[in-house]
Write a structure and sequence with these properties.
The protein is mainly α. The chain has 7 helices and 2 strands. Strands 1-2 form a two-stranded antiparallel ribbon. Helix 5 crosses helix 6. About 10% of the residues have low confidence.
Length: about 210
Amino acid sequence: MLLNVMALTISILSLLAATYLAARQYRITRHANELPILVQLTQEFRSSEFQEAEDYALRVLEAEHSCDLGITNLPIRAKTAVTTLLTFYSSFGAYIILGLADEKVIVSLFGFRANRAWVALEKYIQQERILRNDSEYVAYFEDLVCRVREHWPPPKTYGILLLKMRDDMGGPRGNPILPDAGQNTAASISTVKASTHRGRLGRRAFP
């Protein structure tokens, strides 16, 4: 009887160990697959072409062209700028949905800019959907913005630990000079439970 119990215990422990190792290997493989995608899109994000397209969409588009044009009917310069942003953020949205990128990473790094782009382009997107008779146009981008608003701010929602600079009185520290060697850095770490609040895309700003 004792031998049977020991054999069963060993079998259970072996199964648990195998499950743990398999899960760990999956995480390692997934991160390895995510890295090239993230590097490529980050390079595009930093390119002068993307920065110019974003600046045009945010600062110039609405002043020059009515949203009644949608996107297809925009002049070439405006349409190129807008589609650059739509393609970029739609790619991030698709990668999250398909499990090729970590939502926490994308929302933390690109969430603010994605939401800002959606606010600027939403009227044009809605009109384009009417013109195309396609309610799913740039749906991946919309999904990404929904996730951003639902999980904003990321440190609070995802439980990310961030260091905060403090002065000797415990207030925010604005001095950029590093402390002397051996001096304790006045920093505080705070953890916050993940919020269960669900954002809605109908709102134009973060909660």
